[in-house]
Design a protein that fits this description.
metal ion binding, SQR/QFR_C/D, Succinate dehydrogenase hydrophobic membrane anchor protein, mainly alpha, SuccDH_FuR_B_TM-su, 151 residues, membrane, 3 helical TM bundles of succinate and fumarate reductases
């Protein structure tokens, strides 16, 4: 039986040199984005829940007219847009990391990430369109079917 040489583990304070890698470290930027967007998302979601569920009469007041009235304000449009974009990019980045960790073949990884990017892009584009083109009072609609904010 031959004895293998023991593996030497460097001290934790040892600084490693980056070999053969130049330019931007995208994985580090991804890691930093996940931390920053996570903190911002917590604040946005807690603010969203506070305004929608706790103020006034709470959840009983949430209906079509409530959302339509909220989206007449550029502030709430921007708030919801930021929440949508950050949540989709944050979640997509997390799923991308999982795909990189667990997909064994490069082809599977390519297909899964392609589907992820497609689904994320479609959701972001459609969500953005809904937030900015939403019209609760369409022209020519039956007035009895319109919400109270249209009268």
């Amino acid at each position: 039986m031959t004895s293998a040489s023991p593996t030497r583990i460097p001290e934790p304070t040892t600084r490693y040199r980056r070999t053969g890698q130049r330019g931007i470290n995208t994985e580090m930027l991804s890691w930093l984005f996940m931390r920053a967007s996570g903190v911002l998302l917590v604040l946005l979601v807690l603010g969203h829940l506070f305004v929608n569920l706790w103020l006034d009469t709470g959840v009983q007041r949430i209906d079509f007219a409530f959302v339509a009235g909220k989206w007449t304000s550029p502030f709430w449009q921007t708030w919801d847009l930021l929440m949508l974009w950050l949540a989709m990019i944050h979640g997509g980045n997390g799923v991308r990391t999982i795909i990189n960790d667990y997909a064994r073949s490069p082809r599977t990884r390519l297909v899964l990430k392609g589907l992820l990017y497609l689904a994320s892009t479609i959701t972001i584009v459609l969500g953005t369109l809904v937030i900015f083109t939403f019209d609760p009072c369409p022209a020519g609609a039956d007035p009895s079917l319109l919400p109270s904010i249209c009268k």
